[in-house]
Specification:
The complex is a heterodimer. Chain A is of the alpha+beta class. Chain A folds into 2 domains: 173 residues, no CATH class; 189 residues, no CATH class. Chain A has a 6-stranded mixed β-barrel with strand order 3-4-10-7-9-8. In chain A, strands 2-12-1-13 form a 4-stranded antiparallel sheet. Chain A has a two-stranded parallel sheet with strand order 6-11. Chain A is elongated and about 100 Å long. Chain A starts with a helix and ends with a helix. By secondary structure, chain B is of the alpha+beta class. Chain B has 2 domains: 168 residues, no CATH class; 250 residues, no CATH class. In chain B, 48% of the residues lie in helices and 15% in strands. Chain B contains 14 helices and 11 strands. Chain B has a 6-stranded mixed β-barrel with strand order 3-4-9-6-8-7. Chain B is elongated and about 100 Å long. The chains are: A alpha+beta, B alpha+beta. At the A-B interface, helix 2, helix 8 and helix 10 of A face helix 2, strand 3, helix 7, helix 10 and helix 12 of B.
Chain lengths: 402, 437
């Protein structure tokens, strides 16, 4: 510690390069700590459980060519055909493809004829096979029966009698109560829909929605121009099933345009934006650390070359090799700590703007500390080789030219 | 002299290959990363209607729930109800006005080898093509009567005309849409605004629809929207008519108002209309509407997302670190050559000459870094196209403006980086270095 005073005065004489390193470290820390929390947040979002057997499901869109096509008749024949195909576990009809960013929602109330205080939920019109097809888990109550199915025209208003909802939606609309048997009111209506079953988890149609996971299923098919089927294949057999689907359905009735897409592709597309943030920010953070490390190596080498004579003199006056190495490492740490102090402050200030203006996650102390430690390690590792090399400067060469 | 300085610079770069490569790489990576992101943000901030920015307006009316404002940036629903759109269409104040929405049909031809397929359709009033300045190759838009009564006519995009009629003049031909015969009355030229400013409801970077049909067909074909339909009042009537008369919003509305008087007149008209609806028990919220220029519309709809802005700032900060890095390395490099500069000064070179020489050396590094940076940016942009899974193809591309901007950015970055080191070495005292020789 006796070295501290001469060290500080040496740093003062070389303040510009030292300041440049400290500034780089500060900016690096500010950038990395903020990107780390964003990346962590996005990865958590992408890896959220969906409740769905995503890898085994194929989505089919069937659009009728004739204008007054009997879609309801076609649906039962199609589903019967799909369920009998080899390697198909089950098939269902739905008004929307899960996790596809396109779907339907409504506001539900616990009392009749309300206009305020409802809870918004994603709504599925489907049939009793949806639980098995999507791979959902019924945790309370029962599924629909085929007898409860209702068939409507597109904008026909008819009362719905039963619903299965997700646990999350149940907890929101009936907190701390058993939802089974309780009523739901669809918007400002007076007809109760009985909750008959609860599903453990289902993320719904929109991955970016703040209420993703609020889902209600109704036993309805509407006679629309186009419908969606979901087909679940045996594990590993999805792509084999996919090949035959369009032909089989067209063979049964050529009066339709049929499109297929595996569910995993819908999911990848829905998360493409988050995935892009994760990849780009990770690459930026990694490249940044690397470039800053190279910069520190370059500057320390230059610095040592410049002070070769002083090192030689110190060595001649009895300083050991480890004294010299230690000197440069401590000097580097001093610079790094200054940079980290500046950087931590900058990181927290930047994060306030990120949270306020760009709705990004809050930077807490722990990730900041971890990033600070990382920056310190990178900085010391970069200085290590040049510092060891400095110790090898022999007193003789260094003092020769004086 | 400049030629000599450039050759000096290149020689000096070759003398310290590692350090030079490091500096070029730092500038290249900084420029590459920031140009990738800035290109994306620049393309996303384009306004295809800029030439009519002062005369076009997106119309919003606050017909929403009295208990809760609409969930948009200006708390007015993005779209109109069908009945309000019909009422506004009756006004003759705007030079042009468009009510429209996205839809889909199956498409086939009689006696043709083309397999039936589904296509995105725009259901719109006739002014769509005039208002947005869309050029026709063949034919033109439909009669005004087709906006209110069903006429089975269709306008094709250039690509669709090529697919169905191999690019020939197809006016008068028949296309089968949802098994109904439609007569082709026009073919438009390629028109791909990106962002898709006229309808940003279903993604801002999706393709323009490939067929256009008149707004008078709704009742006949029971057309719903393939875009967003949002409602708040479930008390709608029975059947399709009930849907048309409901409070669901699903129609996009644009007007062209060529001067201030016309705009004021139209604002008065909207105020009177809402007032009249209030008297009938609708529009229970405070009287509010908005007329937004295309440029304002893009901002309101947050076409450039928060994530894009974050990436923009991160990449600029990244470039800043790279520049500081280059300052440090250039300082190291120049000061190592201080004896040379000392000799030149002693032989009569002015401080300015030394300064210029070193600034040219750092610009050389900047140009090399800039060129490498553009290559990196191209790689970065293809990386983004890949990661976005084709959803940003219309914006993830570089144009000449951005290539020139990249070189400019690299030059500015390296000049900024070289300024202090060059100044510093031009201040060296020649006597110190002469003494030690």
């Amino acid at each position: 510690m006796l070295e501290l005073k001469p060290m500080l005065s040496a740093l003062w004489r070389n303040k510009v390069p030292a300041l440049l390193i400290a500034l780089q470290l500060a900016l690096t820390l500010a950038i990395i700590s903020n990107t780390v929390v964003i990346v962590k947040d996005r990865i958590a979002k992408i890896e959220r459980p969906t409740g769905i057997a995503v890898e085994e499901i194929i989505a089919i869109n069937v659009m009728a060519i004739p204008n007054n096509y009997d879609m309801i008749g076609a649906v039962s024949s199609d589903l019967e055909l799909l369920r009998k195909l080899p390697f198909v576990k089950d098939a269902t009809i739905t008004n929307q493809v899960p996790l596809s960013r396109s779907g339907s929602a409504g506001t539900f109330y616990t009392q009749p004829n309300q206009e305020v205080g409802g809870e918004v939920s994603n709504r599925y019109n489907t049939d009793p096979n949806f639980i098995n097809t999507l791979g959902l888990k019924l945790v309370a109550g029962r599924n629909f029966t085929n007898a409860e199915m209702q068939y409507f025209d597109p904008s026909e208003i008819r009362d719905i009698n039963v619903a299965v909802i997700t646990q999350q939606f149940a907890d929101k609309i009936y907190p701390d109560q058993d939802p089974i048997g309780k009523p739901l009111y669809d918007g400002n209506t007076s007809h109760p829909i009985e909750i008959i079953g609860v599903i453990e988890r289902h993320l719904g149609a929109w991955v970016d929605w703040s209420k993703a996971g609020n889902v209600a299923f109704f036993p309805i098919v509407r006679n629309t121009q186009d419908v969606n089927y979901l087909v679940r294949a045996e594990p590993g057999k999805r792509d084999d099933v996919l090949k035959t689907l369009v032909d089989k359905l067209s063979e049964r009735d050529p009066q339709r345009v049929i499109k297929t897409r595996v569910l995993s592709e819908y999911v990848a597309r829905s998360y493409a934006g988050d995935n892009l943030m994760v990849k780009v920010l990770s690459i930026v953070a990694a490249t940044l650390s690397f470039i800053v490390a190279l910069g520190i190596v370059g500057l320390t080498i230059f610095w040592i070359n410049q002070r070769a004579k002083q090192i030689g003199v110190r060595r001649a006056l009895g300083a050991s090799r480890s004294n010299i190495s230690r000197y440069f490492l401590i000097e580097n740490s001093l610079i790094a700590v200054t940079g980290i102090a500046l950087g931590s402050a900058a990181a927290l200030i930047v994060n306030q703007y990120m949270v306020r203006d760009y709705s990004q996650p809050v930077l807490t102390l722990l990730p900041l500390l971890i990033c600070a430690l990382l920056v310190l390690v990178v900085s010391l590792a970069a200085a290590l080789a040049p510092a060891l090399r400095a110790a090898n400067i022999s007193p003789a060469t260094a003092t020769r030219s004086v | 002299m400049i030629g000599y300085y450039i050759s000096l610079a290149l020689r000096s770069l070759r003398r310290t290959p590692t350090l030079s490569a490091l500096m070029v790489a730092a500038i290249a990576v900084g420029v590459g990363a920031s140009m990738t992101v800035l290109t994306l943000n620049y393309m996303m901030s384009q306004n295809a209607l800029e030439h009519k920015d002062d005369v076009l307006f997106a119309v919003q009316l606050d017909s929403w729930d009295v208990n809760e404002a609409a969930n948009t940036t200006n708390e007015i629903p993005w779209q109109l109800t069908y009945r309000d759109a019909q009422a506004l269409l009756r006004s003759d104040i705007p030079t042009h006005q468009v009510a429209m929405h996205r839809y889909g049909f199956t498409v086939e031809l009689e006696e043709s080898a083309i397999r039936p397929y589904t296509a995105d359709i725009r259901v719109t009033t006739r002014d769509f093509f005039n208002l947005f300045d869309i050029p026709f190759i063949y034919g033109g838009t439909w009669e005004k009567t087709a906006d209110s009564s069903p006429m089975q006519v269709v306008i094709l995009s250039k690509a669709t005309n090529e697919k169905l009629f191999s690019g020939e003049d197809s006016v008068g031909e028949t296309v089968i849409l949802n098994s109904q015969p439609f007569t082709v009355i026009g073919v438009i030229d390629t028109w791909e605004p990106s962002p898709k400013v006229y309808d940003v409801n279903n993604g801002s970077f999706t393709k323009v629809e490939s067929l256009f049909v008149p707004f008078g067909l709704h009742r006949k074909l029971e057309i719903y929207s393939w875009g967003n339909t949002n409602g708040w009042d479930s008390g709608e009537g029975e059947g399709y008519e009930g849907f048309l008369q409901s409070e669901s919003v699903w129609i996009q509305y644009w007007v062209e108002l060529t001067n201030k008087e016309q705009k004021t007149e139209y604002e008065n008209f909207l105020t009177a209309y809402i007032q009249g609806q209030k008297d009938q028990g609708r529009f229970e919220r405070p009287l509010k509407f908005a007329l937004s220029k295309p440029s304002e519309w893009l901002v309101l709809n947050e076409v450039l997302s928060d994530d894009n802005r974050v990436l923009g700032w991160v990449s600029l900060a990244f470039l800043l670190v790279c520049v500081i890095n280059a300052v440090a390395l250039l300082l190291a490099k120049f000061l190592r050559k201080a004896p040379e500069a000392g000799v030149r000064r002693a032989l009569g070179a002015s401080r300015n000459a030394i300064f210029t020489q070193h600034l040219i050396e750092s610009s050389t590094i900047g140009i090399l870094g800039g060129i490498a940076g553009i290559l990196l940016a191209f790689m970065g942009i293809s990386g983004i196209r890949y990661l976005a899974m084709g959803q940003q193809d219309t914006v993830a591309r570089m144009d000449w403006v951005m290539v020139i901007a990249a070189i400019g950015l690299a030059l500015i970055a390296s000049l900024l980086a070289g300024l202090y080191p060059a100044w510093r070495i031009s201040r060296t005292n020649p006597s110190i270095y002469l003494k030690t020789q």
